[in-house]
Amino acid sequence: MVMNQKIQNYIEKLPPSYQEEVVDFLEFLLAKSERQEEREWSKMSLASAMRGMEDEPSEYTLEDLKVVYQ
């Protein structure tokens, strides 16, 4: 049985008030999934942007920073 049909069969057996709860829960799960996906993309984007930078020479030294903040 296809998952959509299985879910539909269960939902049809519930009273309307519980069906509303199911919809609320599904909306919660969808929002949670989207937030997780955004975090994963954000981490991947940052990792891609920073890739190889650790091998680049620094443009500034600690002495440069001390001069600015004294």
How would you characterize this protein structure?
The structure is a single chain. This protein is an all-alpha fold and 70 residues long. The protein has a domain at 3-50. It is 76% helix and 0% strand. It contains 3 helices and no strands. The protein has helices at 3-13, 16-50, 62-68. The longest helix has 35 residues, at 16-50. The mean pLDDT is 83.
Helices, strands, pairings?
Elements: H1 3-13, H2 16-50, H3 62-68
CA-based gyration radius: 25 Å
Largest sheet: none
What structural category do the secondary elements indicate? mainly alpha
Counting DSSP E segments of at least 2 residues, the number of strands comes to 0
Dominant shape: rod-shaped
- What is the succession of H and E elements? HHH
Helix content: over 70%
Oligomerization state of this entry? single chain
Question: Top keywords for this entry?
Answer:
70 residues, mainly alpha, 3 helices
Question: Brief overview, please?
Answer:
Helices cover 76% and strands 0% of the residues. The protein contains three helices and no strands. The mean pLDDT is 83.
